[in-house]
Design a protein that fits this description.
The complex is a heterodimer of chains A (658) and B (148).
Chain A: H1 2-29, H2 33-62, H3 69-74, H4 81-87, H5 92-112, H6 119-143, H7 167-196, H8 201-232, H9 243-268, H10 272-294, H11 308-336, H12 347-377, E1 383-385, H13 387-407, H14 418-442, H15 448-473, H16 481-487, H17 490-515, E2 517-523, E3 528-531, E4 534-545, E5 549-560, E6 563-568, E7 571-575, E8 581-584, E9 586-589, E10 593-604, E11 607-616, H18 620-636, H19 645-648
Antiparallel strand pairs in A: 2-11, 3-4, 4-5, 5-6, 5-7, 7-8, 9-10, 10-11
Chain B: H1 3-31, E1 33-37, H2 39-43, E2 52-59, E3 65-66, E4 72-78, E5 83-89, E6 101-108, E7 114-120, H3 130-147
Parallel strand pairs in B: 1-2, 5-7
Antiparallel strand pairs in B: 2-4, 2-6, 3-4, 4-5, 6-7
Classes of the chains: A alpha+beta (658), B alpha+beta (148).
């Protein structure tokens, strides 16, 4: 009964989404205020419907209702209740419902929490999002019904994939989906600009916080995913250039380019067509990511099922989205063109460089990700693109990007002078280059890659603090430093913190790469092994029962000199319903290093293969992105973006053309 | 310079940078392609020694031998027609087992064995890595066509 109720809610949501698109777009074109308001109401109704449907589905999981196929396949009565809830989105159908729910959540937020927009602009954005939602909900109901029944109902379910029974799994998908789907909002803003042919500073101020919000979620989602892979997969890697990771990283790069490009559009009226194109690309690449991950063309923990109909449907949605928006772009973009005069030596140029590098990096990763799949689909051979490719491409492209990242804020808009810039940065550049050499020489690890990373880290740090000092130092008289500090706008702090976050991340990645150590060793109880100054003593393995598994739990004591630093208990779990062994690594974290131990195979008797890792500075790999996310929130909350329309833009004509 | 000339210089510089980036990407791309081959391909000499390859198939029953250090493992990957010896140092994935699909990535040695740096098995018990399934299917098709 409940399952049919859920299905009914989904069908209703399709209809409401269709009406939302119709009322929004037609209402805005014909200046019908009542229609526009109706579109907004539809957006909220859609969210309520999907939220209820999602809650219904969670209810079925908690009730262990195995007459619903999805529950039978992904849960069991022995699964702990919190993993019964996460099992709701630990599968294809449920995660797609979450995708749709996230979209309706974003839409409702635009409909009701953006008072600064004109009614027509808002109606168009809501209408476009309604159209996207209609397509997606059709996909859900036609090919991936989460409420499908299983007859006869089995007495016990098959449990959730053990890899996904992990706290990281609770938050990773919601964050990532909010990020993916958030790109739909900037996409809708971009299409609305194309339809009306108007794209002024007010438009940029409206769209920018939404772009930032999506970027924050995407950043956090990728970060949590990387963290999960690090401790869950049991071999200490944190980024694998795996197609599924790339699928989320490509839109992130494009969205990063977008939130920079839109600044130039706001301040200087330039790069308009480019900003629109980036918004379209970000959403299209998010859809492509969904296609790659969900169609089963990639084998991974994310590819729950391979059903060609689903892949084709998403590919169709992607084709329609890209086709319609590029046609609209080709037709309307010339109307947007015509930015201000462009001078060479100004902040605009550095932002342009950022945009080019981010886009080229995204394209290069896309090539490495899609080429093997394309070749395979065309039956031209099977191959894969090795990890070294991504590193070889990404590092040289990002090096100048980071270099310019710390230079850009020193430059003025429109026109600046070399002498004014050189006075402030040349000294720092030279000093940081030298300091990086000295530091690495002292640490006894002077390699080109480590030097590059350390130099960029120091450069970002020194540059950032010089920037802050200048900001507090050379202002008008009559203000104390505290007053000046308080007056710095949120968007400036956002820039400053995000750039520092990039620096922190680079430092972590560099030092980790330079000093991490790994030892795979056969150990009997009582034996010791030394790694990077730590003494690991293996105390043996015991059998320990868990809620839905039995674990072989090893105990490893770690000492540094005489001091006991950590007692680690890595496990090998065998889950009752899947006959599948799972390695559960044990990690002892401090700010400066992780000690990481995981169990390999049992050799014979009491002897086990044990993998020992020393991972310096690994925490900075997540702290950096966390700082970026905080920065994004700070910038999005900048008061200037929430000024009322009267102050921001006195008259925005309702364009009748669209 | 007039604005027109400025714009021209800008476009030329941008194009040069873009060309450099594309050059970098394509050369890195060519150097890092790893071809997927089957044990039959190796026996038939379709790959040369020193080449980086991915090889897929089933782990031959009874072929998994652990070295005296407990870490080095050798096993044979078979596509049911031919088999190839693989040496690997390190911990094997959780779902690695005899008579199950596996993929090994590494360097092909002159004696026709593979020194693997990565071994992949399936992610859950319901399916084989597609590459392993492919190798077996290909070999079985080849055998069938020989018999006919």
């Amino acid at each position: 009964m409940w399952a049919e109720w859920g299905q009914f809610l989904l069908a209703l949501a399709v209809a409401v989404a269709g009406l939302q698109a119709l009322f929004g777009l037609v209402g805005a074109a014909r200046h019908r205020l009542a229609w526009m308001v109706a579109a907004r109401r539809a957006a909220v109704a859609q969210m309520v419907l999907l939220l209820t449907a999602f809650a219904t589905l969670i209810g079925r999981f908690l009730a262990s209702d195995f007459s619903v196929a999805l529950v039978a396949k992904n849960s069991s009565t022995l699964t702990p209740w919190y993993y019964q809830i996460t099992a709701t989105w630990g599968n294809h159908e449920g995660s797609m419902l979450m995708w749709a729910l996230a979209l309706s959540g974003w839409t409702a937020a635009v409909a009701w929490r953006s008072d600064s927009l004109t009614e027509a602009m808002r109606a168009r954005v809501v209408g476009i999002l309604g159209a996207v939602s209609t397509g997606f909900l059709l996909f859900l109901t036609l090919t991936s019904n989460p409420f499908a029944r299983l007859v006869p109902a089995p007495g016990q379910g098959r449990d959730l994939n053990p890899l996904l029974q992990d706290p990281g799994m609770i938050i990773h998908p919601p964050l990532l989906y909010m990020g993916y789907v958030g790109t739909a909002v900037v996409f809708a803003f971009a299409l609305a600009a194309l339809i009306t042919g108007r794209m002024d500073a007010a438009w940029s101020r409206w769209a920018r916080p939404w772009g930032l919000a999506a970027w924050v979620f995407l950043t956090l989602g990728i970060m949590v995913g990387s963290w999960w892979a690090y401790y869950e997969l049991g071999w200490g890697g944190w980024w694998f250039w795996d197609p599924v990771e790339n699928a989320s990283f490509i839109p992130w790069l494009v969205l990063t380019a977008f939130i920079h490009s839109i600044i130039v559009t706001e301040k200087r009226g330039a790069f308009r067509a480019w900003t629109v194109l980036l918004a379209i690309a970000a959403f299209s690449l998010s859809l492509l990511g969904t296609f790659l991950v969900r169609s089963g063309v990639i084998t991974s923990v994310h590819a729950f099922a391979s059903d060609p109909a689903r892949g084709l449907f998403i590919l169709g949605l992607l084709a329609v989205t890209v086709g319609v928006s590029l046609l609209l772009f080709a037709w309307r973009a010339p109307m947007l063109a015509g930015g201000g005069a462009f001078a060479w030596f100004a902040r605009e140029t550095t932002l342009l460089i950022n945009n080019i590098l981010m886009s080229v990096a995204a394209a290069a990763i896309l090539l490495g990700t899609v080429y093997p799949l394309l070749l395979d689909a065309l039956r031209l051979g099977k191959l894969s693109v090795g990890e070294p490719y991504f590193v070889a491409v990404f590092v040289p492209l990002m090096t100048p990007a980071v270099l310019f990242m710390a230079i850009a804020p020193f430059l003025r808009w429109k026109q600046d002078e070399w002498s004014r810039l050189a006075r402030r940065i040349v000294g720092d550049l030279a000093v940081t280059m030298g300091a990086a050499v000295l530091l690495l020489w002292w640490l006894d690890h002077l390699t080109l890659r480590a030097w590059l990373g350390m130099w960029l880290t120091l450069w970002v740090a020194v540059g950032s603090f010089r920037l802050l000092a200048e900001r507090l130092g050379n202002r008008m008289e009559g203000q104390s430093a505290i007053e000046r500090l308080v007056r710095i706008p949120g968007s400036w702090w956002g820039m400053w913190l995000a750039h520092l976050g990039v620096g922190a991340f680079i430092m972590g990645a560099t030092l980790l790469g330079a000093f991490e150590a790994r030892l795979d060793v056969k150990m009997a109880p009582g034996q010791t092994a030394e790694l990077s100054g730590y003494l690991f003593r293996f105390l043996g393995v015991q059998e320990v029962p868990g809620p839905n598994y039995t674990a072989m739990r090893g105990t490893v004591e770690v000492r540094q000199g005489d001091r006991l630093v950590a007692v680690l208990t890595p496990e090998k779990r065998s889950y009752h319903f899947s006959a599948m062994l799972m390695t559960e690594a044990a990690v002892a974290t401090t700010l400066w290093r992780d000690l990481y131990v995981s169990l390999g195979d049992r050799v014979d008797g009491d002897e086990w293969v044990v993998m020992l890792f020393y991972k310096p500075m690994v925490l900075f790999l997540w702290l950096g992105p966390l700082l970026m996310a905080i920065a994004g929130v700070t910038a999005a909350l900048d008061r200037r973006y929430r000024r009322t329309q009267a102050a921001a833009m006195p008259t925005v004509a309702l364009a009748a053309r669209g | 310079m007039t604005p027109r000339q400025k714009r021209f210089v800008l476009i030329v510089v941008a194009l040069l940078l873009l060309a450099a980036a594309v050059g970098l990407i394509l050369s890195a791309f060519r150097d890092n392609l790893v071809f997927f081959i089957t044990p039959s391909d190796i026996v038939q000499g379709k790959a040369h020694a020193g080449q980086r390859v991915r090889i897929g198939g089933l782990v031959q029953t009874g072929s998994v031998v652990r070295g005296s250090d407990g870490i080095t493992v050798t096993f044979r990957i078979t596509d049911t027609a031919h088999q190839v010896l693989v040496r690997y140092r390190g911990a094997l994935p959780d779902l690695f087992a005899e008579n199950q699909g596996a993929v090994a990535e590494g360097v092909l040695l002159p004696d026709g064995s593979v020194e693997a740096t990565k071994v992949l098995a399936k992610h859950d018990e319901t399916y084989m890595p597609p590459e392993a399934a492919d190798a077996v299917n290909q070999a079985q098709r080849a055998q069938k066509s020989l018999k006919e």
